[in-house]
Inverse folding.
């Protein structure tokens, strides 16, 4: 590399370090980074250098671009295992502050899919609960869950931010296991709006059945931001002799 190439690389690294310090010391998750034009004026470097430094930080997961809106400081990233644990408890174990926003909650008649999942008759009364999950103020997941009214009478009369805790404390129902499937899809307009992401951004979709001694207690669909979650599991050889 010639001297001019070395200078460009050094300047790019310097700008990247300056922006990293701002992100760490001055900004918070969800804050908008100054525009490229503003950074060029502040730092006295070329627009190409600023753009490359920002690209490095996007690749490192410190920044994210939203078309038409700007460049934002990212929120927390979660490396999660496949297990049965409440969202709030998992976030606290990772040193993050959880928050749940209840978007809607109402009683409805179970359609065929929900009835089959909850092992109730079609048309049986169920509670449909829609929530947004956040960690340190960053939207992480959009969840919709269904619960049989027969097992949880008066559920709508309680705060619904922590349903698993409510099951134990008020109804004496303890989740014992879960069965879940994980797939991928692109965010539609509604999901993108709820999660604050771009339309067609990648999502991890989790479909779960939760069981207790009383039977199936929850059927849920959760859409996790793929830029915030990575799923970890331990794989063991299958015993073919059985």
């Amino acid at each position: 590399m010639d001297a001019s190439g070395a200078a460009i690389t050094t300047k790019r690294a310097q700008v990247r370090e300056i922006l990293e310090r701002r992100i760490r010391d001055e900004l918070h998750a969800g804050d908008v980074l100054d525009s490229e034009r503003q950074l060029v004026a502040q730092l006295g470097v070329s627009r190409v250098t600023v753009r490359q430094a920002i690209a490095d930080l996007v690749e490192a997961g410190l920044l994210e671009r939203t078309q038409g809106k700007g460049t934002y400081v990212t929120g927390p990233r979660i490396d999660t295992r496949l297990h049965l644990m409440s969202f709030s408890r998992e976030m606290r174990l990772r040193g993050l502050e959880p928050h749940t926003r209840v978007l809607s909650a109402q009683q409805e008649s179970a359609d065929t899919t929900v009835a089959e999942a909850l092992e109730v008759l079609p048309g049986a009364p169920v509670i449909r609960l829609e929530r947004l999950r956040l960690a340190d103020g960053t939207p992480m997941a959009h969840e919709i869950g269904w619960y049989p009214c027969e097992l949880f009478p008066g559920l709508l009369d309680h705060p619904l931010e922590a349903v698993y805790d409510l099951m134990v404390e008020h109804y004496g129902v303890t989740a014992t296991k879960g069965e879940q499937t994980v797939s991928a899809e692109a965010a539609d307009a509604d999901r993108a709006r709820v999660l604050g992401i771009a339309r067609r951004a990648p999502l991890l979709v989790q479909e779960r059945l939760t069981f207790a001694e009383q039977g199936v207690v929850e059927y849920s669909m959760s859409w996790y931001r793929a830029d915030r979650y990575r799923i970890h599991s331990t794989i063991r050889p299958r015993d073919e002799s059985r």
